[in-house]
Amino acid sequence: MDRYYGFDLGDAESAVSYLNKSDVTVPRVLTVREARSFVTAYARLRNGELVIGEAACYNPDAMTRKLRFKSRFLKDPESRKDIKSFAAGVLGELYMSGDLVKGEDCCFYVGCPAGWDKTAREIYRELFEEAGYPPVRIISESRAALVSACQSKHFQVGYDILSKPVLVVDIGSSTTDFAYIMGGREVELQTAGEVALGGGLMDEVLLEIALDAAVRGERIQEIFKESPPWRSYCEFAARRLKEKYFADEEYWKENECRQSVIISYEKPVRLPLFMNEKTAERILYGGIPQLGGKSFKEVFVDSLHGVRAKIQGELPELVFLTGGVSRLPAVRDWCREAFPESVVITGVEPEFSVSRGLAWSGRIDEELRQFRAEIQELVRSSTVEKIVEQHIGELYHSTVDTLVQPILENAAMPVFDRWRDGEIERLSDINKEMEKEIERYLHTEEVQALLVGPITQWLKPISYELEEQTIPICIRHGVPYKALSLSSFLSISDLDIRVDAKDVFAVEELTWMIDTIISILIGLLCGGSGVALISGGISGIVAGAMLSLMILILGKEKMEEAVMNIVIPRPVRKLVPRGHFMSRMDKIAGEVRESFFKSLEKDKNEAITKRLVGEISEQIEQCLMRMAEVVEIPLG
């Protein structure tokens, strides 16, 4: 793609920005009908011509006029025709101005409220396709605003904030849209649907104040009833005056903030608009009928607290405001009161943050397609497997070092106690019981937790070797190299995507290792035909004499079989001190490790090792792909 266009089609105003593939500056806001921010309106003239923007509101040749149709999209199917007509008008203006050339390799990213589901977004996309647009992708306006913040040099916001919780508050003309974003993932937050609270309500209040004070107020009211587009046009003028006033309240305390609108309907009528401290108080803190008598502040603050209560994860570290109303200092103060732990920011030109973010999203998406392709190529190669295989022996060693002592204490000792208490009748039954107890113990949460430390440490050198592969990919595509640093994810606990050492491989994948440990352990504990188990205390002296006699009578093999299958009386078993067995376990722990390591070098099962390498490699590859998703700032 050579060019990326961002189209912020709002209910009251719209804006279009574009960005060249090679641009290093911010996206340029295009002028449509001599305005960077133009009225979302269209009119069909007597000669069939389609007119958009401010001219559509008052052109005397208009046969039909349509405004405020986007807010009806989800409820009124007829609004789709209006959106399509307006979009076609904007497209025509772009072609006429030369800002868009037919046949060029470009795409449009069009914004929509975060609350629209996939079905609504697809219907919306098809409207632009039917209007003749180049390829179109629909993404949420709140996401576009965050992308704009991350890309803008005005803020020190970047990859790090994408791993932190962010609340985007998009104050439009008709609704306020909340989106909670954590780790690049968006969660829509509603306080009973989209909050029916927008800057348009302020404009309506300001217009009503002007009408009450106007000499020809009643006549103007009649014109509004006969021609609703004129009312919308006057509201648009009121919005501009309101934004002008709140941009520098201190200045306007000493100066007049006024504007006159000429309504050309039959005979021209003049409507004076004005802003001062009194009207500002009325707009922000006075009761509004459309809000059930509540003030703008009351509803907005209630919505903020409602959103705060619905956030299930961490509270936002950043509250990012977008939309023209976000210029108001009072609005930022309300956000700080509701989220005192957060940084509240807004852009220099918040009315263009969405369209610019949309254009940026196009280039980011294209760049990250190539980024994803290289990551997938790395994952498909045998690189990860080779690195893991080189270190697999270290994993075996560290796992054995970690598990031997806990197995002795939590599996072998309970089996001895059961034999000593008479629950296990014969020494020959101990092998089977020991295997069951060790297997049970190895599936407990305790063992899973024990494995976290050694596996995490084992992954460290692997992560460093992987970074030699991922850092060049990050550099080529302008992605912070730490984004694909496995070692960073292992050490930073507040990221929601990390390598969970408990899940790198299941205990079942260590079957060969466990079987080897069990056989060595049982051999050392119960070796010598059970002599090792019972040769302690008084019973040990008796056992020694008895075994010597039995060897003379039965021979060694018969004796071993007899001892392993004899039912030793419980009182005799009690003579075997528990401390003796515990002492023996302490002595053989080192022997178990040494014997296992020898077995590892001699009898290692290549098939199981290969499967274990595959399992671990797949987990690491999946982790790389998940981390890549965080970097991508998913745009859907």
Mind explaining what this structure looks like?
The chain has helices at residues 55-58, 79-97, 118-130, 141-151, 159-162, 199-213, 217-226, 228-246, 249-253, 277-285, 296-310, 329-338, 353-380, 383-420, 430-442, 445-476, 486-491, 511-526, 531-534, 537-554, 556-565, 570-574, 578-603, 606-632, and strands at 3-9, 13-20, 28-29, 38-39, 41-45, 50-52, 62-67, 106-112, 136-140, 165-171, 176-182, 185-189, 257-265, 267-275, 318-322, 343-346. By secondary structure, the protein is α/β, with parallel strands linked by helices. Strands 1, 2, 3, 4, 8 and 9 form a six-stranded mixed β-sheet that branches. The chain has a five-stranded mixed β-sheet with strand order 12-11-10-15-16, with helices on both faces. α6 (199-213) crosses α7 (217-226). The model is unreliable at 190-194, 489-509 and 527-556 (pLDDT under 50).
Q: Low-confidence parts, pLDDT < 50 over ≥5 residues? A: 190-194, 489-509, 527-556
Total helices: the number is: 24
* End-to-end distance: 19 Å
User: What value does the average pLDDT take?
Assistant: 78
Question: Which percent bin holds the helix content?
Answer: 55-70%
> What characterizes the major β-sheet?
6 strands, mixed
Shape: elongated
Number of strands: 16
Cα-atom Rg, whole angstroms? Answer: 37 Å
Beta-strand residue percentage: 5-15%
Structural class by secondary-structure content = alpha/beta
